[in-house]
Amino acid sequence: MSRIGKLPVAIPAGVTCKLDGQTITVTGPKGALSERIPASISVAVDAGELTVSRPSEKKEDRAFHGLTRALIQNMVNGVTQGFERNLVIEGVGYRVALQGKSLNLQLGYSHPVTFDPPAGIEFAVDGTQKIKIIGISKQQVGQVAADIRKIRKPEPYKGKGVRYEGEKIRRKVGKSGSK
C-alpha cells in the first residue's frame, strides 16, 4: 500500500472540496483550484476528511494513488496558506526592480528583460537582489521560478546569474596562468 496515498487529507475549516465526475475543486480563503483525477482512482469526501483509494495493485494504479493524494494535499495547502519560492540574483550590475506587477531584470544583457506574471502569481522584491514568487498553485509557482531562472542560469566559474535561495552552485576551477 502506498505510504502517501493511504493518508487522509485533512480539510480545514473554511475550505470546501467538491467532486464533479473526475474533477475535484478545492475552494478556500485564497482562491479556488481544480484538478482532473485519473479514471482508475476514487476519491471520497467525508466530514472534514478526504480519502483516496485505488482499485488494484497494478503499477499504474499505485503510481496514480500517491500522486493524486499529493496533488489534492497541495491544493488544500495552496488555498489556505499559499506557496512561495525565493530567487537570488548574484553578479556585478545584476539587479531586479518591480515595475507595476512586472519584474524588470538587468542580468548582463544589452537590454533589460521584462517578465510579466501569469494569472494567479504575484512578485515581491526585497532590495535589488531577491525575488519572491507567491501564488496558490505549487506547480505554477515552481514553473514561474524556473522560467525566471532560465533567463540567466548561474554559471560555474563565478556563480553569476539567477539561482534558487539555498541552491549550491558547483564551482569550477578557472584557467591556471602560464608558468
Overall description:
The protein is of the alpha+beta class and 179 residues long. It has 2 domains: 9-80, Outer Surface Protein A, domain 3 (Alpha-Beta Complex); 83-164, Ribosomal protein L6 (Outer Surface Protein A, domain 3, Alpha-Beta Complex), CATH 3.90.930.12. The protein has 2 helices and 13 strands; from the N terminus they run E-E-E-E-E-E-H-E-E-E-E-E-E-H-E. The chain has helices spanning 59-80, 138-151, and strands at 9-10, 16-20, 23-28, 31-36, 42-46, 49-53, 83-90, 95-99, 102-106, 113-115, 121-126, 130-135, 161-164. The chain has a 4-stranded antiparallel sheet with strand order 11-12-7-13, with helices on one face. The longest helix has 22 residues, at 59-80. The model has no long low-confidence stretch (mean pLDDT 92).
Order of adjacent strands in the largest pleated sheet: 11-12-7-13
Beta fraction: 35-45%
| Named CATH topology of the largest domain | Outer Surface Protein A, domain 3
Indicate the CATH class of the largest domain: Alpha Beta
Helix content: 10-25%
Cα separation of the termini = 64 Å
Low-confidence stretches: none
> Which sequence of SSEs, written as H and E, runs from N to C?
EEEEEEHEEEEEEHE
Q: Provide the number of structural domains.
A: 2
Class from helix and strand fractions: alpha+beta
